[in-house]
Amino acid sequence: MTKKPNPHRAGITPPKLAKESIPNHVAIVMDGNGRWAKERGLPRTAGHEAGEAALFDVIEGAIEIGVKEISAYAFSTENWRRSPEEVKFLMGFNRDVIRRRRDEMNALGVKVRWVGRPKRLWASVINELEEAEDLTAKNKVLTLNMCVNYGGRAEIVDAASALALDVKRGKVKADAITEKLFAKYLDQPTMSDVDLFLRSSGEMRTSNFLPWQSVYAEMVFMDVLWPDVDRRVLWRAIEEYAKRDRRFGKA
Ligand code: FPP
Description:
The protein has helices at residues 33-39, 44-65, 84-107, 123-136, 152-168, 179-183, 231-243; strands at 25-29, 69-76, 110-115, 142-150, 196-199, 218-221. It has 251 residues and is α/β, with parallel strands linked by helices. The protein folds into 2 domains: 21-149 and 192-241, Undecaprenyl pyrophosphate synthetase (3-Layer(aba) Sandwich); 150-185, no CATH class.
């Protein structure tokens, strides 16, 4: 049986909003772990560790308010440029978090999916992601896209390359390529368009996260470092989202 999310520790419940004001898909750049740790005289890795609770509280809050899909930017194709120690930590950390949280996500009815490039990614991380995908494949409450070794340009280039190969093999006609067909070649073809794009830490950029899927996303930048985030920050961002007038190019 699907478990209900634990209530927020202060007993706070989500704001009452009309169903159509709730974003279906929320993309999250979990930024500010390093600064959070530095402010406390701790190593950067302590900031990442503190970020785990933030992500899983946000997931529970997302279920409570009715969000159906979350994409979390856990490691980017550019994060390989960090120090070897931090890269090693982030790889091991991602692997351990996925293993540690798998059963809890399954109990909540969360479907976990990996989005990203296999190249360079540790085999042990891929194994954990695939185990979590298999275990949670039938769940329907919320889809959690774990974006590990993900890069927006890498995703588009890989899609273009696979599509070019299909054109060469005669499986696809070059003049029949549409946006819909192209999207089938992306890392996760069934991912829906992003409605709300959130970034913590006050930085205002998208950093190569889901460019194809976010062309009409509403951007909300939160002035709080990721380890200090909990579901209330998500709910505030959704209240802001609910006030936006989304026109999708129409007048
Ligand atoms: C940005 O903080 C965060 C990342 C590079 C991604 C890693 C995110 C986490 C570990 C959060 C929780 C994730 C999981 C999988 C539970 P930063 O290091 O860029 O911070 P800074 O901008 O303050 O230096």
